[in-house]
């Protein structure tokens, strides 16, 4: 085996210029493949992290997956029912204290109960539709990153503030209101109260910053005229990946609709899966193109060394040995290119991570999001080696099949 490797090295060194070009092609292919994978994976991770931080890992509402049985269906053997007027159930989640106690006994995370109410916020002559969320501030701070998104005031100022509200900075801008101003919030029930703005937040999610209003749970219950009602339970887990299992168990126990963050963003995650398939297909294509350089040089060496191959076979070398020699040449160039490409990929990834951006609007992302993942290096280098070995095998197979007598005599 050592002799075969020495022969392969001699062949590769004999065409140094072409070898350098082939290795450079593999190096660039591996390096840019790793950098592209790091950038695309980084952007995906950044987006998913934003999703996870901006919403609860599991959300339980007072809805059910299937429509409730209508009273008429119990009384009549009807196939279809039309024209029924739905009856509002102001109770929300039944027995919320018992439900919360049951969840806290096994859920590995923090839980916050609240009341969602639709309403209108008015300041001066401007009205804006808003989504009012009544919560207990202490519990909400355990399940939400809202404290980190505060731009003015403190979220904890809701405690002891009477009718106090924390609103998005975009909503405040559209209303023309600011910190410590008083806005009038009315619910669909017709109940209206004046709320003092004690804090402004910016999450970067437009729908949230323009419509969300946080108030105390009791204040929301007053607006909705629903005493002690709760229609929303939010859960934040230590392990976000466990959200699907927790949501399924909660739905089974409470018979209420429980949605994990994965289910709520299913279409986005599917799009990411398709994008990853496209990314790795492009990476493979880049490395296959780089492998053609190796194929060309090994083919040239095979043609030039035809008489040497015949002599080696005539003194006892087997067809298998010839194949190993030329496959080793391809693997040597692929391995060297893969190693150099891994270094280039790491350098490109590090450089891209330092690129800064300036935006007019405030945002937390100031650098290109990149991810360091050894799997990217393993895939890129592995594909480079596989492509190089295949590029060396095809000419090697042809060389091994030659008849040494015909070659030495000059036959074609």
TrEMBL record:
Domain MacB-like periplasmic core, residue spans: 19-252
Keywords, comma-separated and alphabetical: Cell membrane, Membrane, Transmembrane, Transmembrane helix
UniProt topology in membrane: Multi-pass membrane protein
Domain called ABC3 transporter permease C-terminal: residue spans: 281-404
Coiled coil: none
Listed name of the protein: ABC transporter permease
Listed transmembrane segments: 20-40, 277-303, 324-354, 374-394
